[in-house]
Each structure stands twice: as structure tokens, then as C-alpha cells.
Amino acid sequence: MIRSKTWLAAATLALTLPLGAPGVLAQTATEPEPSGAPAPETALDPQNLALARQILTIAFPPAQREAKMHELLTTMTSQFTQSVDLDKVSDPGLRALFESYFASIPEALRPAVAAFIPKQIEAISHAYARQFTRAQLTDTLAFARSPSGAAYLQHALDVMSDPEVAAANTAYMKDVLALGKSMGQDLQLKINAYIKAHPEVAKEG
């Protein structure tokens, strides 16, 4: 029987990390400043930005973006569900609740994903324009415009449903789930010890 809150925290961690792992849409995002301050604005070369936008339009056709991300979320959620090992949940009603919850995640996230995609695509186009030279962007666009290049870029996320990749992801999620549970338990112990040493904190909430 799954009984602890730390399991739910671990489940959330295990699901969140893999969804970010295949982030082809975010691979070139710039690292934040170590201080936590916003990165300084850098003037973008208009020609570089135009090239970057063309590359992303080919790699992620606008009409297909939302469906592709929904498909990815469905794939990753399915792999995560397999990693959870719901066979350990002895009560059929409780197991059905978990199964229903996991199955609902892709559709529940659809509005958030729809709002996120255009912002992330534009942010990545800016990152491309900053990080790559005109020559590199021109070469990449030429590759993207070729039949092989377009196929490669447009189907990059499809590998996540490949059986071998799925098996690797499921094993990874099991490891992260175990790590998340351990970390959650450790955090709870530290919180309990802190509140014991500082009882006034418990009164603030």
C-alpha cells in the first residue's frame, strides 16, 4: 500500500524531471546569472533572429506544435506510470485513483502547454540568434530545408516512444522516484528538527 506523502512528492519529482529531459524546445536556452539576477539584455542581430525563426518554424511546424507536445506528455506519462509499479497498491479502488490521475495529466496540462509553447519558441529563437553566428545559422537553415534535415528535426521527439528509449526512461524514472522518496524523507526530518528547535515557526502558518 502506498501510504506516505513522501511517495507523492517523489512521484511528482520523477514525472517532472523526465518531461524536461527531452526538451528539444529548450536545449539552447541560456543559463541564468549565478546571482539569480536577470540576464542582461543583448542586442539581437535582426538577420540572425530571422534565420533562427525560420529554423524553428521548420523544426517545429506551428500547426503541429501543440499536438506534438501533447503526444510527448502522453508518452512520458505512460512511461512514468510503468515505473511507479502500481502492483504494490493492493487496494483496487486506490490503484484506480492513481491510474486515473496519471492518465489525466497530459490533458490537464494542455492549456498550460498551449500558452507555454509560443513563448518558449520565441525565447529559443532569441537564444539561437545570440549563441550562433550568421554562418552557423545559415548552414543550419540549409540543413533544415533539406528533406533529411526537416525529417530529422521534426521527428526528434518521436524517439521518446521508441521501445529502447522507453525502457531507458522507465528505468531512469524508477531511480528518480527512489531518490525523490529518500530526499523527501530527509527533508521532512530536517523540517521536523527545525520546527522543534524553532516552535514559533509552526505558529506562523
SSE pattern, N- to C-terminal: HHHHHHHH
The largest β sheet comes out as: none
User: How far is it from the N-terminal to the C-terminal residue, by CA?
Assistant: 31 Å
**How many DSSP E strands?**
0
Gyration radius over CA: 21 Å
Please characterize this protein's 3D structure:
It comes from Novosphingobium organovorum. This is DUF2059 domain-containing protein. Keywords: Signal. By secondary structure, this protein is mainly alpha-helical. Helices cover 75% and strands 0% of the residues. The chain is built from eight helices and no strands. Helix 5 packs across helix 6.
Layout: helices, strands, pairs:
Layout: H1 5-20, H2 46-59, H3 62-84, H4 92-131, H5 134-145, H6 147-154, H7 163-197, H8 199-204
Helix pairs in contact: 1-3, 1-7, 2-4, 2-5, 3-4, 3-7, 5-6
Short account of what is shown:
With 205 residues, the protein is mostly helical. It has one domain (5-16, 44-204). The chain has helices at 5-20, 46-59, 62-84, 92-131, 134-145, 147-154, 163-197, 199-204.
